[in-house]
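Dear all,

This email documents one entry for the complex benchmark we are building for the journal club exercise. For each entry we list the sequence lines for every component of the assembly. Then comes the predicted three-dimensional structure of the complex as a token string, followed by one or two observations. Please use this as the template for your own entries, and keep the labels exactly as they appear.
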Amino acid sequence: MIYKVISKSEFTAFIDAIVKANNAYGPRRVDSDRNGEPIYKFMPVASADEIAFDYTATHFSAKQFFLPFREELSHFSFDEQDNWEQHIRYEAPPTLLFGLRPCDISAVNILDDVMLRGPYPSPYYLARRRNTFIIGMDHLPLPDCFCKSMNRHTVSHGFNLFCSDIGDSYYLSINSSKAFTFLKEFELRNPTPEDDCLLIERRKLIKQSFLTNIEVTGLPLFLDIEFDSPIWEKWGDKCLNCGTCAMVCPTCYCYSVEENFDIDLKGSSRHNRLYSCNLVDFAEVAGGHNFRPRNGDRLKYRYYHHYRGFSANDNQQICVGCNRCGRACLAGINPKDVINDLRLERETCKTGDSPSPNRT
Ligand code: SF4
Ligand code: SF4
């Protein structure tokens, strides 16, 4: 890693040049929510003017650039003699993503573990990941962000360039030769001891600004104990089975595979489509048997995937604490309330004062 400092005006000139020369995406305001708060989305940008440098958080994560909602895996064609050919493309155009937060970059690192380091690495994901240049930016957390609890409020890898706001300048962490080459034409300086102090102060401020905290110490074991808790049914009864939480989540990656035949039967294509474990038919098998017929069971498994399963297999939890799922859920279901409810039940059970429903 190489560290440099760049003035904000020079940084804007750098971003303007780099987005003009590339297939670039950055945060843009696209609408307002019902409270009048801005809604931001990663959208194509052609100049620095189009980027919302002061954005808070995007409703959708950057997952869409690596795991699109729907993608073609292969295409088959058949000729008159019944010979067939399979066509597979792994190509991905070079793409620049600007403005990812530390938790967003952590989420991409988690997807790397899943999609590239498992027994069946995905060439589709690899093509996109290799061809994507990531510029990260720090920010002060929203009141409901809890990435500090998940230890994802800082990030040290997975990006090409990371920018920390230190007042009139940005403190740059340069993590690739490509980023260094791009920056060569712009005015940079080595950090002074004062810059280092400003960076430390900035990090302290970010850390102290979190208003939402979740106690995750020992959570995997805790979830084991709470497998049959009535809390799952209580929250599951609210769930609308819409799957929105998984769509906005930067680390939900479950998908289904479907085949589509051309109407003249001379070709077919195989697609995958992102799916959600909260959808009613997620665990349905041939014959109509559903292994998770109840809302509470499906909700529980989403939480176990995020906070339990991966810690056993990979020594990490895959929730990065962005709270996109909590913001998007129309039923008001969010990780903080569900986990705190589970903890509350356990902590009060000794006194017999549990506010939870009976276990019948
Ligand atoms: S967004 Fe909320 S209501 Fe929809 S599936 Fe997820 S938890 Fe259920
Ligand atoms: S589970 Fe919710 S809070 Fe955690 S990473 Fe996914 S969207 Fe963010």
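Observations: The pocket of iron/sulfur cluster (ligand 1) is lined by residues 239-245, 278, 328-331, 333 (CB under 6 Å). The mean pLDDT is 91.
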